[in-house]
Amino acid sequence: MTMTRITVTVDGATLAELKERVPPGEVSAFVVEALRQKLRIDPIEELLRQLDVMYGPLTEQETKEGEEWYDQMMQRLSSTLEP
Question: Would you say residue 1 lies in a domain?
């Protein structure tokens, strides 16, 4: 994949945190991954906003049921991956 150098301006606090968390020489990879993640999430968030407009937001009960279902699925998945 061809890489292109760009210039990005950030505030001082963000730069300081970046320097604390990311080793020198790995900043570009960190930023690229952050951008990829944002680009994947934004369309999903937009879809969820549209669904809220069309059908209304989830109720507390629906949210609770969804969280319980998710926890059960994660437990089942982890049990199938254990040696």
Answer: no
Q: Which tens digit of pLDDT belongs to each residue from 27-47?
A: 999 999 999 999 999 999 999
Q: For residues 83 and 81, give the distance between their C-alpha atoms in angstroms, rounded to a whole number.
A: 6
Other CB atoms within a 10 A radius of the CB of residue 79 amount to 8
DSSP string, 19-83: HHHS-TT-HHHHHHHHHHHHHHHHHHHHHHHHHHHHH-PPPHHHHHHHHHHHHHHHHHHHHHH--
Q: How many domains does the chain have?
A: 1
Q: How far is CA 30 from the centre of its chain?
A: 13
Burial label, 45 (beta-carbon count in 10 A; 0-12, 13-18, 19+): exposed
Domain that holds residue 26: 12-81
- Residue numbers of the chain with a pLDDT score lower than 50: none
